[in-house]
Specification:
With about 130 residues, the protein is an alpha+beta fold. It is built from four helices and eight strands. The protein has helices at about 1-5, 65-70, 75-80, 100-110, and strands at about 10-15, 20-30, 35-50, 55-60, 85-90, 90-95, 110-115, 120-130. The protein has a six-stranded antiparallel sheet. The chain has a two-stranded antiparallel ribbon with strand order 7-8.
Length: about 130
């Protein structure tokens, strides 16, 4: 729901493989004289790890060439809190989780030690800070 509100596009999120989410959406486009068309696209996001409140992820876009993923940086950054996308090379990205005030508040009290993505759920492993 949060992704749909931020993107104004119907988005579905599902399990792709262990540690990997698949985000699917319809991309609409128009060609002069031919009208518009819609194509279903999906991007897989694989969680690689977390270190010092920074999450490393890999983006895989199937048939979409890698250069299009690198062109998507501006679009991705515009949907995230300022400063959250620290690194982005087209396929690999590092997210600074403390750039979000809500997540930063949570991380002051708890340390995020891991993320597990499986068919049934996404599990976050938090450990209380003393």
């Amino acid at each position: 729901e949060m992704l749909q509100k931020r993107s104004d596009t119907p988005v579905s999120i599902g399990f792709a493989a262990p540690g990997t989410l698949r985000i699917t959406y319809n991309a609409a486009s128009g060609i002069p004289l031919f009208g518009g068309f819609s194509k279903g696209l999906s991007i897989e996001i694989k969680f690689l790890g977390i270190n010092d409140n920074r999450a490393s992820i890999e983006l895989m876009a199937g048939a979409i060439p890698g250069f299009l993923l690198s062109q998507a940086r501006g679009m991705i950054e515009s949907k995230l809190p300022a400063g959250m996308l620290e690194e982005f090379d087209g396929h690999l990205a590092v997210l600074n989780l403390t750039a979000s005030p809500q997540i930063a508040t949570l991380l002051q009290r708890f340390e995020l030690r891991g993320v597990d993505i499986n068919e049934g759920c996404v599990s976050l492993d938090f450990f209380p800070r003393l």
